[in-house]
Amino acid sequence: MKIAVDAMGGDFAPDAIVEGVMMAAAELPENVAIVLIGKQSVIQELTQKHGIHTVANIELVHADDVIEMDEHPTKALSQKPNSSIGVGFKLLKEGQVQAFCSAGNTGAMHVGALFSIKAIHGVLRPCIAGLVPQLAGGYAVMLDIGANADCKPEVLAQFGEIGSVYAQYTFGISQPRVALMNIGTEDQKGSLVAQAAHQLLKEVYKINFIGNIEGGDLFTGVADVIVTDGFTGNTMFKLGESFYSVAKQRGLSDEFLDKTNYESIGGSPILGVNGNVIIAHGISSPLAIKNMIGLAIRQVESDAYTKIAQALA
Amino acid sequence: MKIAVDAMGGDFAPDAIVEGVMMAAAELPENVAIVLIGKQSVIQELTQKHGIHTVANIELVHADDVIEMDEHPTKALSQKPNSSIGVGFKLLKEGQVQAFCSAGNTGAMHVGALFSIKAIHGVLRPCIAGLVPQLAGGYAVMLDIGANADCKPEVLAQFGEIGSVYAQYTFGISQPRVALMNIGTEDQKGSLVAQAAHQLLKEVYKINFIGNIEGGDLFTGVADVIVTDGFTGNTMFKLGESFYSVAKQRGLSDEFLDKTNYESIGGSPILGVNGNVIIAHGISSPLAIKNMIGLAIRQVESDAYTKIAQALA
């Protein structure tokens, strides 16, 4: 198994990325290698400093170009096919790696996935899934947390299916409880889209739809899959992540609150595409990168995207 | 000054309401009285038990009927004009009380306000404002947190004006910083509505619009007024409130997290109507009721709704 990592993406790249890769490499399973993609002239000093050439489970792949954080995703990808992001998707599409991870330009990662490995046949809108720690242990999958700010009801209903398969195979949850994030428990509550999505979710026989949940239920273990549009999902996910920093500012230390720290998960998968793609916060620290790689390995092992494709066939 | 309180509304009414009123009465300023509205036969035992007749600053007003939590707001109000909610609004409209508070049927409170004291001339959509504690002290006003699940851009822009006036007069903040809750800092980010609202907010010369903020900024003191649609606002506000219960479940005790406890604010004002109306969570405890009354007094003193009417004239 090979996990490709973009050395150039992120606010603290390449240093933070390379450090995170070194941390991950120290604990990798035997059959796993990391493919670090970056501009040779930029990362050479770092790779030498860390002695990467001596590490058996890290390979280096050169990429000429870099897509900056503020570049327009589609333009950047067509103009810079030899960027670390472009090269990463090329390797993924060709099957030379089994996952591609980056803390770089999120839009470019999303568009890049759509262009290279493409959306799974039948998927209306690929999305980004956020993993939310639950008080009693484990995680819930919230989707979408940012790829699609506006969603039609049928797109939300499909997120329920996609999230359910992901939770089943990546977290081993049988019959994952699927809930719709809403502003009241009654069926008729919510925005027009939420009301319509609620009705559609009720009709998806393949999932265990438990109805609406509210904002206060994010961490309480009432659902395994939380369906929402990308706008609501993003604002809530970021508020949830801030719990850790609020606690830290208050001088509080707690195992559960540590899990709300973005670093502890490391990344968010793009679901609904024909491959394993994980994106991470621009501010990713070495620890976040290390954990993102761990998530990628888990996802490759679960073969979630193949299962999602089968479920939607 | 007279503050009317609905004795019958809420999951733990009338007991919790009456207790909260007693707590408030013990600390009321000299010129303030509470008008407790409820069905005589139901609250008689309680009022006797608490010796309300002996408390100088509490008056009792009888109301024949009760609007239940699950009743359809508009139907209930027209069929039950002598409900505690109906009577409360009657007293408010007639100027016999200066504020009306209830932990009862939120929809009925909202519709009741629209029917009786009516929307301020020029207000597109009255809304519910949530008070969000800030790490460095004080509060931010978030609106809308639930009255309008779907909002047009111009409605959001107007929330910015309304919230700004409220923050200025109720919290004494000069030139309140108004931000739009969004999924990225750049102007073009967000849902279609958020993008359009962003442009409109830029053009409202009367406010100090500081641009977009993200979910992680809810508590960090970057804004005094947070504009959002009722769906996003409700989910975020409830998630924010849950910080207190999550911390409690983890055995953590902290002054700031205590402030995220819904009980500590007690209520949320309906803004954009010609009077002071505060609604509280159905689960309101006596402490929440007491604090809701405190908020009502503050709001009456600030005369916020008159200032809002002037600003929009």
Automatic annotation (TrEMBL), chains A, B:
GO BP terms in the entry: fatty acid biosynthetic process; phospholipid biosynthetic process
Protein name: Phosphate acyltransferase
GO molecular function, one term: phosphate:acyl-[acyl carrier protein] acyltransferase activity
Keyword Manganese found: no
The entry's keywords: Acyltransferase, Cytoplasm, Lipid biosynthesis, Lipid metabolism, Phospholipid biosynthesis, Phospholipid metabolism, Transferase
UniProt source species: Spirosoma endophyticum
The keyword Metal-binding appears for this protein: no
Top-level enzyme category: transferase
